[in-house]
Write a structure and sequence with these properties.
Strand content: under 5%
Distance between the termini: 87 Å
Order of helices and strands: HHHHHH
Helix content: 55-70%
Oligomer: single chain
Length: about 110
């Protein structure tokens, strides 16, 4: 077989797949899963200015609440997705708080 036949096979070495792929490193370190999730929230909401807030929320707030709020926001056409997200998180937290108060025995 000739070299031209090998070149047309369509296969590439694995090393060449990532040769042109570079991430922009801004000096930050993400070492925990919640940090990664918070950063992804900031990207999804197009609010990288407040990424520290989303990282803190990812650490302190139940993941289900954040997922439901993000789903709500992703379906909307709001001007400020970040504000809508914050409002929805607060609303969901209040709902959960109200349910736990209603379930608690009267003293």
């Amino acid at each position: 077989m000739s070299d031209s036949k090998k070149k047309n096979s369509g296969f590439q070495p694995v090393q060449s797949l990532f040769a042109d792929f570079k991430l922009e490193d801004k000096g930050g370190y993400i070492t925990q899963e919640f940090q990664d999730y918070g950063y992804r929230l900031a990207i999804e909401l197009d609010d990288l200015e407040h990424k520290a807030l989303y990282i803190k929320m990812a650490k302190q707030i139940e993941r289900g609440i954040l997922e439901r709020a993000l789903s709500y926001v992703s379906d909307s056409q709001a001007d400020s997705r970040a504000k809508l997200f914050m409002w929805k998180v607060k609303q969901l937290q209040d709902e959960i708080k109200q349910v736990t108060i209603d379930k608690s025995p009267n003293t």
